[in-house]
Design goal:
Length: 286
């Protein structure tokens, strides 16, 4: 398995903006008061434009993982994201909690989000990120069935794309791995996510973390990949309603400046990195 990046770059940086807006509060946290919804509105009205300006200034393309609900609630923002040449990938219908859904309901919400994508973005998404990075037993097979090429929700590697395998559970003997999916996984990490560290959610998440610590954490994870892991994909997950805050915009500026000071670092949307990936012949044979 290998990554042949443009210009012979040695690693890739994939910044993923999870444009959850209202939907995270509605679907993930069940908080629909005007106050929580206003935080989602901040993401759409302030966070996204700030991030777009930042990406323009540093001349980088990214992926906006967007629930169908955000697409239809803030269509003008989607127009701006697309006008700037960023990729839009699927991120659920209304940030539903995937493991709590029946198979029928999971399929129904997949259909709805694809219809919303076709209406607002056009065509079909190549990639998927599950809301809150959680899967049900059928999620991967649904992604295969609906023609997705890649996913970015799982954590079986740190930097290297891979093909996840289903796990058959046994408690008194070894678990058994099934055959790898043809879908390419770009692994994520809670350490490379702004939300748990920085965003307060009463009773769930302390947030309000030290932004200097956040910068050092993200910088050190990048430095390790650059020094030790040729072919790494550094998948940073940010949320416009969190990283769009001024204090975090400064962290992002410093981080991108740091990463761009190295030779051979490719910045791009995940589908552009997918297009640089070649599987070994035996990858999907186990
Ligand atoms: Zn999300």
């Amino acid at each position: 398995m290998s990554l042949s990046l443009p210009g012979g770059a040695k690693m890739a940086v994939a910044i993923g903006s999870d444009f959850d807006a209202h939907s995270a509060w509605m679907g993930a946290f069940g908080r629909t008061s005007p106050s929580y919804l206003s935080r989602g509105e901040f993401g759409a009205e302030v966070g996204v434009p700030r991030l777009l300006e930042l990406f323009r200034r540093f001349d980088i393309k990214t992926t906006f993982f967007t629930p169908g609900h955000s697409m239809v609630t803030f269509p003008e923002r989607m127009e701006q994201i697309l006008a700037d040449g960023h990729e839009v990938a699927s991120h659920g219908c209304y940030h539903e909690s995937i493991p709590t859904l029946s198979p029928e309901r999971e399929r129904e919400l997949m259909e709805i989000q694809l219809q919303q994508y076709a209406k607002i973005v056009g065509g079909r998404p190549r990639g998927y990120r599950s809301p809150a990075w959680d899967f049900s037993e059928i999620t991967m097979s649904l992604l295969e069935e609906y023609g997705f090429e890649w996913d970015s929700s799982l954590m079986g590697r740190e930097y290297e794309p891979y093909h996840p395998r289903p796990v058959e559970l046994h408690y008194e003997s070894a678990n058994i791995f099934g055959p790898p999916t043809p879908i390419l996984e770009f692994p994520v990490s809670w350490y490379l996510d702004d939300f748990p560290a920085q965003e307060p959610v009463a009773g769930i998440n302390a947030g309000l973390g030290d932004h200097d610590l956040l910068f050092r954490r993200w910088r050190d994870i990048f430095d390790y990949a650059y020094e030790n892991c040729p072919g790494a994909v550094y998948a940073l997950t940010i949320h416009p309603q969190c990283s769009g805050r001024s204090i975090h915009m400064k962290v992002l500026e410093k981080l991108i400046t740091h990463m761009q000071s190295f030779e051979g670092v490719y910045f791009g949307g995940m589908s552009s990195i997918y297009d640089c990936w070649t599987d070994d012949e035996d990858t999907t044979a186990g």
